[in-house]
Structure formats: C-alpha cells, structure tokens
Structures
1.
Amino acid sequence: MATNLLSNIHRGLSQPYTDTQLIGGDYFYYHYGCDGVHDQVIFNSEIFLLHAHASSVDVQGWGCGYRSLQTIASYIVHNKKSLVSSIIPTIRHIQQTLVDMNDKPSTFVDSKEWIGSFEICLCLEELYGIYSKIIHVNDGNDLEKNVAMIHDHFIQVGTPIMMGGNIDSAAKTIIGISTDSKDVKNSKLLVVDPHFNGKAEIEILQREGWVSWRSIDSFVFESFYNFCLPQCKLVANK
C-alpha cells in the first residue's frame, strides 16, 4: 500500500525579512504517527522512493530525532544524484544501522531510545555517504553568534539542519533562516517540528505552528544545542 506524505509544508509562509535563505529542494514531512504499512512514497504522482517496509510505530516521547533524520533523508534522496542508497530508513533500520556501526549495543534495536545530532551524522554517512558538520552551541544565548554560520550554510550547501539540545531536547529540523540586517538578535529560523501527531494538513500545520518562523530568542537560554549540518550540495534550485 502506498502512502502520501505531505511535502514542502513551509510553502506559503511569509518571509520575515528580505534576507531569507531556504533549503534548495523538496522534502517530505515525517512526524509522529506518520507510519503506515507501506513500502512506497509518492511525490507528484511519481513513485520515486522505495521505503523499507514499515508498520505503525508509536514514537511519542522518544522518536523526534528519527523523524528529523527521515525528513532530511527524504530531501537528500529526492535531490541528490548517485547516492549509495535511495531508501528512506525506517526507525528499526536506523537503529540496526547504529548497531552495525558498533555505536549502539544490540539491545538498541526495537528499543525506545532516542537519537540526537551525532547519531544522525553517523547514519547519513553510513546510509548515503554524506558527511556532516556538528556545531555545538553552549546555550541559547549563543545562538545569535551562529546566525552567520547558518545563513552561509543555506547559501553554500542548502541541506536541512537537525537541531537538538539537552534541556530543550525536542529535535527540530531547520529549513531556512531570515536575517534582520539591523539587529541579528531578531533573526528567525524556519522550524519543521516532527512532534505533530494526527492526520497532517498543511493549513493546520502552518496555523498551529508545526512549521513556523521562530525568533532565535524563543529558544531555551539554559539549554545547549547541537546542530547537524549535512555537507552535500544538491542538484536543486531554490
């Protein structure tokens, strides 16, 4: 059975500032409860991704990092040529990959253990041959110091970024940045939140803020943050 996942759920949102940089291609929105019993993903009536067989998985409370990885993987598979694999991994596949790499013990498979930016970095390299940068930000107050880095990433590379932390441990996928030329503190990140659970509709996702522009001062000041920036220029147009 084929399942239609929503794509490009940010489209239609207004851009806060003139200097706005976005990802360069298409992606699917993976979120809580999006699994069905399926082995195909359809985009614009064309079946172009073979999804490893999956059944519905309850990932609430621990699965946001996996969903962020799947969203990033969908972007890479759709836009990058000559990949090692064109399959978007299931959660079990991700877990088995980390076990096979000796990063996790065998008990990790079928567990409810979460993954973060480091594990996503490992999986992208193992599954697709794509290296990533890991950027550590000491606390939320230091996010403004990294605006230029994020801005340059979307200009020079264009891939989605995974963002995770400790106190603010909810994984997020960053797909754009809008920079205030007068005050960098007002800059905003375009966040795709994987924590939505239910039947996804773009209007609902945008209205309820599951995809939204977030000011950098809206993040938790007391939390450190790690960013995973996949380093591959894709065949795509902004």
2.
Amino acid sequence: MAPNATHTANSIRQSDCNVLKKEVKQLEIGIELDRNANSNRK
C-alpha cells in the first residue's frame, strides 16, 4: 500500500515536471520570437 502511494506520487511529480518543462520551453521560444520581432522593428 505505502510503496504504491509513494510510486504514484512520484509518477505525478514526474509528469508535472515534464509539463512544466514543456511550458518553459514554449515561453523561451515566445521570448525569442518577441526579441526577433523587436529587433526587426528597429
């Protein structure tokens, strides 16, 4: 029982972490695009 609960918590943490990594990557891409757009405007 306890090992399963721990395993489930770890799995959830792992998938949350993967989701956050994807979101961070998309934010970084968005920032990069904003930078490029701003430098093109000058």
3.
Amino acid sequence: MQYRAITLADKEQAEDCIAASGSMACHTSFVNLYMWRKVFPSEIAFSDRFLFRRAKQKGETRHYFPLGQGDLDKAFEKILEQDSNPVFVGLSKEQTEILSHRLPHLNYTFTEFRDNADYIYETKALISLSGKKLHSKKNHLNRFMRTYEGRWETVPISSENLHLVRAFHKEWCKKNGCKGCKSGKSLHGEYCAVMEALEEYDALGLKGLLLFVDGKPAAYSFASKINDRLADVHVEKADTEIDGSYTVINQQMAKKVLSSFPYVNREEDMGIPGLRKAKESYRPAILLMMHRGVPEALASAQITSEARSGVRVRAV
C-alpha cells in the first residue's frame, strides 16, 4: 500500500469511502483533508475499498481509523504491514472499542481529548431556535431583524462574489491579528486553509452564504456534505461590530443551505474558552469525543524513557 499526498482528483473516491464509513467526525471530511493539507500535511492511500490516512507530527506517525465499507481485519493488516505498533488519533468511542476488539494483542490505552470534540446539532433546532434553552438566541436573532429591517440580505456564495468573501476574510484576519500563511499559529493556519478552499470552491462542492448589511459584506459561511445525513460547516466569520451577525449567518446557513441534512457538524472548539462557550450555547445534540490510542509497547517505552530522564511520568 502506497501512501501519498492528497489531491483534488481524489475527491470522488475519498468521499465514497467517507460516506460508506458512516463517520460523523469533521476530520474525515474530504474538504478538510484538502484545505488543511499544507498546514497539517498528511498522506492517504486507497486499498480494498478503504481510505487510509496518516500524518507525521513531532517525530511520530499517527494513523486515523480506516474509512470505508469492507473487511476491517484486512484494513488493519494493511496498516500493520508498515507499522507494527500504530498510534491512532481522532478516534470516536465506538472506534476505540473496535480497535480493542480487533487488535487485542496491542493492548491499547486510550485517552480522551475534550478540546477536539465535535459539536453536532440538529439542523431543525438551528433553524427554529425554539425552546427555553435557545430563547436567548432567538431574541438575538429577532433583535437583529428589527434593527436592520430592510437593510440586510443573504446571497449564495458563487464565482461572482468569491472576491468579496476573500476580501472580507482578509479584513477579518487583519482585525484578529492574522498576517498571512507564514506563522504556525492557528489563525494564520486557518487563513491559508480558507484561501485554499475558496480557490477551489466549486470543484470542492462547497455551499455557502454571504450576509450583507447596508450593501456591505457582514458575514459569511461555507459547508460541505459528509454524508446524506450530515453536513460540516468549515468556516463562519462575521463582523462583530454588527450585533447579531454571527447569530444570523448561523441560522440562515441552516435554513437556506443545510436544511436537507438532519445534522450539522460545527467542528471543535480547540479548547478556546470563548469558542467553547459559543458552541455549547447552541445546545449540541451530540458531543462527539475524540480519543488517542497508544499500544502498550509504545506506552511502556515512553514511560521508561521519561523515568530515565527524570521527567515526571504522565498519561498521554
């Protein structure tokens, strides 16, 4: 099995494997794999109706659960042929159980990572904002509607207005301390990824909205399909000087772009307090936890190495 860099030509085959897997994780989205490929380089391979992914970070090869619909035992054999003690990341709870069952001889230890958990919402709830738990969101939306009555509109993102989206994101980035793609900080990396996605907007099958207030861009968002029941919102940016702009672009995206999908994945909060508060406030239907799996041989080696160097032994 030969690993290589992902290309746009892989889209159809990769998306077939992703959809067949039934995964709800945002990191399985082809669009995410493609748009973030220069920021977080990874490799892919196809074999026996599965999509295989791996990445090298901090000197360690990290594997992802194979995506597809076929013989999982053979899929794991493919991975073991090249890595006898594979470390897995981005695992759902169900996938940790499958690994433990299918590869018992490796005796995996799993660690949960809350910062990487995906927030998954019922689309109808994002549209209606009904009920006591979302009452404040509905009030915020209504206040925007009253304040800007007759002064706002949303239009689908298309080749005709992509230049406005680029310009808006550049301005947003400038206000929030981004300076292009050279820095490794998260916002700089996101800037690179967004520009990659916008460059191939149609080819990637992206769908999005651009919000105008008083004739000027005030917010935008775009998403893609993971499977028939789930869409993934990749980016959502708004002008915070226009009160309610984030609430409106969120609700309008669900209503006008994503209503055919029962669920919407709005991705992780990365441990950022403000982002966590915002995502939790929309009351996710599912908080999809992510896990890391380390085989016993590697876990033991790490503990031994840390003990010899005088480093405090800790869970990984």
4.
Amino acid sequence: MRRRRHLRAAVAVIERRGRLLICRRRTGDSFGGCWEFPGGKCESGESWEVCLRRELREELGIAVRILTVCGSMRHEFADGVVSFRVFRCVVARGRPRPLAARALRWVKPDQLSRYRFPPANRLLVARLSGSASSVCR
C-alpha cells in the first residue's frame, strides 16, 4: 500500500483598498486556468511564516506584512492531504507581478464566487465572500 502524502501550504489573503489579490494558474499547471490565493508548499523544516514570505517573493516579487493568522484548513485529495495556514497580509514592499502565474487580479470579496478556484480553495472562498462563517475579518 502506498503511503498518503501530507503537504503543508501557506496561503496569503492580501488586501488593498477593500480588494483581495488572486492569481490565475498557468494553462499547463494542475488546475490550469483556475484562480487561487497566493502562497505555496512549505519545504521540510520551514515555518509557516518563512514559507509564506519565500513563496510571495518568488511568485509575486513582493514582501508582505503579516497582520494576523486567519486559521487553518485541510483538504483531502486522492493520495493525501494538504494542510493550509491562512494569513491576512498587506504588501510592504514591491508591486505584485505574475512571476509564476498567468495573471493577477484585485477583486472585492463578494465577487470571488465569479471565479473558478480549485477544490482546495473553495472553503476559503466561501468564507471570504461571506457565504460561510468569517475568516480573516
């Protein structure tokens, strides 16, 4: 029997003037064309915060100020599980650029449901758009 993978990922809810930053995955990536919140997988031994800062620097070319930890979530997939830690942030330095994404967009929370997100992001989208209990607010 194959061992199930357990991944950890840090996710940023980056706010600017009442809008949230979302990134569109490249076409050839898994869930290509879907939108997601910036962030990524933690490396072995890496703290959540270090992971988040590294991923945002690599993927968007920015530094952030973490305002609060919004919470944690889990998502089961075919051969494992991913644990997410969600952080509410603002840009401290730089201007977000799509270095590892097809596009970026700043959207109002109540508009999130108009975008197609991977299954692992759907609970966060529901919470941020107000259709479930609040997270990051």
